[in-house]
Amino acid sequence: MSNDEVLRLEALKKSYNIGQPNEIEVLHGIDFTIKRHDFAALIGPSGSGKSTLLNILGLLDQPTEGEIYLLGQATRQMIDQERTRLRGESIGFVFQFHHLIQAFTVIENVLMPLMLVHGKPNKQAIERAHDLLEAVGLKDFSKRKASQLSGGQQQRVAIARALITQPALLLADEPTGNLDSQTATEVFELFREVNATQDCAVLLVTHDPRLSATCDRTIKLVDGRIESDVLSNP
Ligand SMILES: Nc1ncnc2c1ncn2[C@@H]1O[C@H](COP(=O)(O)OP(=O)(O)OP(=O)(O)O)[C@@H](O)[C@H]1O
Ligand SMILES: [Mg+2]
């Protein structure tokens, strides 16, 4: 692999309900590579397979056929424990609904991915969490309960949380789908900043053409196939 390759998919297929009368293939052979500095949008009609694809390339779900190389490592034959470890170390996720723990403070939410693996966070981890909160413009909110933040603020906490492990790849499934247009633009700008400053490839699903137009690359999925994959600002 070239050393700036983060993720590579080869002939990836996915079927649901295998062996049942309602078996359905929803991804029909997907190939692409994500590189270290990519800032890419994944677009396509509802039901085209975007979330399915994102979950597979984030190692949350398994393909039916094909291979996924993450940081050069083939993941298909890995045992679950190994795959979970690789996912935890290299991938950050942001979803449409941020899934923060409402009763916990902002900083506790940001530290959660590390605490799940290592237990009590060390000083270095706490410092990084504060740095990330500063980067997402929430420096003074660290001790607030998540429930006391606005939707856009909560989504920014979710982005900080996704970055606490210093992932090589940040995946986001309609991260602004639940936000008003002004806040969506701000959150998008934050992704852009993360891409530039945290040495992290970003792939995000969006339905908003105004937002996807600001990405460097647009991958369009139609009926489970890549219809186009173009650089927007070559
Ligand atoms: N668990 C499942 N079991 C069976 N079929 C599924 C399952 N999940 C998704 N599908 C089907 O797979 C296809 C792709 O769904 P997917 O959620 O990936 O689409 P999407 O592009 O993310 O759509 P949207 O833009 O609406 O979020 C759809 O036809 C959907 O009905
Ligand atoms: Mg979806």
In short:
It is built from seven helices and ten strands. It is α/β, with parallel strands linked by helices. Strand 1 and strand 2 (24-35) form a beta hairpin.
Structure keywords:
6-stranded mixed beta sheet, alpha/beta, binds magnesium ion, single chain, 4-stranded antiparallel beta sheet, globular, binds adenosine-5'-triphosphate, 10 strands, 234 residues, 7 helices
- Which strands sit side by side, in order, in the main sheet? 6-7-8-3-9-10
Order of helices and strands: EEEHEEHEHHHEHEHEE
In percent, how helical is the residue content? 25-40%
- Looking at the structure, what is the overall shape? globular
Bound molecules: adenosine-5'-triphosphate, magnesium ion
Whole-Å distance between the termini? Answer: 23 Å
- Uncertain segments: none
Structural class given helices, strands, pairing? alpha/beta
Radius of gyration: 18 Å
Give the DSSP E fraction (strand runs of 2 or more residues). Answer: 25-35%
Overall mean pLDDT stands at 92
Structure description:
- This protein is an alpha/beta fold and about 230 residues long.
- About 35% of the residues lie in helices and about 25% in strands.
- It has seven helices and ten strands.
- The strands form two sheets. The protein has a six-stranded mixed β-sheet, with helices on both faces. The protein has a four-stranded antiparallel β-sheet with strand order 2-1-4-5, with helices on one face.
- The chain is globular.
- The two termini are about 25 Å apart.
- The model has no long low-confidence stretch (mean pLDDT about 90).
- Bound molecules: adenosine-5'-triphosphate and magnesium ion.
- Magnesium ion binds next to helix 1.
